[in-house]
Amino acid sequence: MAVLERSYKRYEGVLSPEWSRFLIIPRHAFRAVFRSKLFTGFYVLSFVVPLAFAILIYLRHNAEALAIMNLSIVNVLPIDARFFQAFVMAQGWIGFILALLIGPQQVSRDLTNNALPLYLSRPFNRTEYVVGKMSIVIILLSTITWVPGLILFLLQSYLEGWSWFSENIPIASAIFIGSVVWILLLALLTQTISAWVKWRIAASAGLIGLFFIPSVFAAILNQLLETHWGNIISLSALIQNVWAGLFGTFVRQVNDVRAMRNGRVISSALMTEPPLWASWMVLFLICALCLLLLSRKVKAYEVIK
Amino acid sequence: MTPTAAATDYQLNSPGVITLDNLSVTFGGRPILKALNGELRGRSIGLLGPNGAGKTTLIHTLLGFHAPSAGTAKIFGSDIRGGANQIKRLIGYMPERDSFISKMSCIHFVRFMAELSGLPPGAALERAHEALFFVGLGEARYRNVDTFSLGMKQLAKLAQAIVHGPKLIFLDEPTNGLDPPARQRMIKMIREIRDSGQANIVLSSHLLRDVEECCEEIVILKDGHLVVYCNLEEERKANKKFLMLETRGELKQFVAGVDALGCECAMTSDHRLKIILQDGTEIRDLYRLAAESQVQIRRLMYKRDSLEDIFLKAMENGAVSEARP
After folding, report:
1. Among A142, A208, B101, B142, which residue is least crowded by beta carbons within 10 Å?
2. Which candidate, B284, B288, B229, B289, places its Cα nearest to that of B258?
């Protein structure tokens, strides 16, 4: 057998296509990721929401089942843009937890173990490395966000009829674009934090902090200044606005009731959300900053000045 | 068309494995490599120099990790400035420091590296097994690399450097941290790869003995300058003219005979002679002369500059010298 021929010989066979080599990273990473029972369990649980939404869609179109269960969700639960927006939001936040479980260790492990020279001394560049690492999060989160979202959309179209499908195509694109924007943001943030914070727990805490600490400050600003412009620094508020914009449910000005007496409004304030373009712009700037930080850190060797 | 390793191949012994063309590298305004020039052709090239001389920087620059600030270099004719990907298809690299991917078995790690080099999964797995048996980690290949001893990690690093069958292998301090038997095994493997004729080797080390045992050609760097560039094989051949003789018997007639042959001769003690052979004079002439003079030649040695001598001279002089035309 060949393994017993203990001599050096060159490889003369076929090579894999260069464009596909970044996919080697997620393929090998999934083996390690699914070795964790915690992750596997949570991943399976993340399909509960799509299943529940599928059941709701099915029930809405099955009068017999509704009659048996003595339910009338036909009027209570319309299957429209808000229904799918709720799905994207729910799965988006479940995806956040999944990204939290797998993301922070990806680059930090390689940096700690000095593995980058091994990658980059091969016909494999820094961009392919970053894309490969991001693909781990992108592929996994896709399977729980836009893929089941579009399946739900198709199920609803199948049960409601072709006319519903053609009238609601923008919902399908909103499911896809909204999920992809969120996944890309999560992938970039997790990889950037992973590259800069080598300790996994600190990296996970950093990611949580990045989402929730600015949200707290945003809430304080909103309260003090009687506005919603504070949301411009809150990642969660920004993505909610983007999702609302994509699903066509975005309302910029809300009359916020502050005090009521005897059923009458005695104090209210007109709260103005930042415009949609501003939300997109801030998300874009965050992604650009992540890429800049990654490019500074993902190097074979760091030159210390 | 599907690319093949053969399609991107070059002739192994084509001139210029590495060509340095005024290569300079600067970090933060501080010059690290200063206008290096030369053409390295040997099957095994030793890179020597004191700490901080620029050996590792030179390797990293050739690997494309650092951009040259001036000049350039070519590996098998491909310029490092434009043809980095082309070059990386042909090389293997064993870093100096511990480098591995944690939470992976050794076979998985080496296979992963082979796949990144472009081998399809099946071939990568097969080659990973072969490489690990070759380096002597066959029995430990299913263990996690994290649990390996320093010596085993060195072997795993060598396995990942050769798994894809590169044409040029950069070995940065391969014997670091190895005990004497492990060091011997490593040297033996490097020599086997060299002697297979299937790959050229660049060995960076501060251990002169390692370089002397493995390399045909040496480059000595000092303060970022290339101070010596020498072909050890040719140096050894050239030094065959210097002889040390240990003899028994009356030397007067023998010395006169040596002088008559036109060779320079000096007595270092009662029984010891130093001789510089002239062109056309053979050692058998000395034996014939000794027989005629009733002198016994008990010992005959070629006196040659050891690598240590060459290195120390280079460190003292610091001038650029080329032992090869």
Report:
1. B142
2. B289
Task: Determine, for residues B2 and A15 on separate chains, whether the beta-carbon distance falls below 8 Å.
Answer: yes
State the DSSP code for B177.
T
Cα separation, B300 vs B244, in Å, equals 6
User: Which of B44, B116, B134, B214 has the highest number of chain A CBs within 10 A, making it the mutation to test binding with A?
Assistant: B116
State the pLDDT at residue B303: 64
**Interface confidence (ipTM) of the complex:** 0.87
Provide mean pLDDT across the span B116-132: 94
Token pair of B65 as six digits: 């990790």
Query: What is d(CA B315, CA B52) in angstroms, rounded to the nearest whole number?
Result: 13
**Is A86 buried (19+), middle (13-18) or exposed (0-12) by CB count in 10 A?**
middle
Q: Which residue type occupies B226?
A: L
Residue B115 has pLDDT above 90, yes or no: yes
Q: Smallest CA–CA separation between A201 and chain B, in Å?
A: 17
E runs forming strands in chain B: 18-27, 30-40, 44-48, 70-75, 78-79, 91-94, 168-172, 200-204, 217-222, 225-231, 242-248, 264-267, 272-276, 296-302, 321-322
Residue of B nearest to A28 (CA): B112
H helix or E strand, kind and range, residue A111: helix A105-112
Rounded Cα distance between B59 and B48, Å, is 12
* CA nearest to B86 within chain A: A123
Sheet of B296-302, strand order = B264-267, B272-276, B242-248, B296-302
Examine the pLDDT at B223 and tell me if it is beyond 90. no
In chain A the first and final C-alpha atoms are separated, in Å, by 51
- Sign of the alpha-carbon torsion through B163, B169, B172, B177: positive
Closest Cα to residue A132, out of B94, B112, B222? Answer: B112
pLDDT at A303 over 70: no
Chain B nearest CA to A4, separation (Å) = 7
**CB atoms closer than 10 angstroms to residue A113:** 19
Q: Chain A partners of B138 at a C-beta cutoff of 8 Å?
A: 3
Cα B298-B299-B302 angle, rounded to 5 deg: 160
Two tokens, residue B116: 């990144």
Q: Is the pLDDT of residue B3 over 70?
A: no
Main-chain phi, psi angles of B22, to 5 degrees? 55, 35
Residue by residue, what is the 3-state secondary structure of A64-83?
HHHHHHCCCHHHHCCCCHHH
How many Å is the Cα radius of gyration of chain B?
24
Sheet containing strand B225-231, edge to edge, reads B91-94, B168-172, B200-204, B44-48, B217-222, B225-231, B321-322
The string over A257-266, giving b where at least 16 C-beta atoms fall within 10 Å of a residue's C-beta and e elsewhere, is: eeeeeeeeee
User: In 3D, which of B190, B193, B172, B216 has the Cα closest to residue B63?
Assistant: B172
Query: Is the pLDDT reported for residue B323 higher than 70?
Result: no
What does the pLDDT look like over A134-148, one tens digit per residue? 999 999 999 999 999
Helix axes A146-160, A169-196, angle to 10 degrees: 170
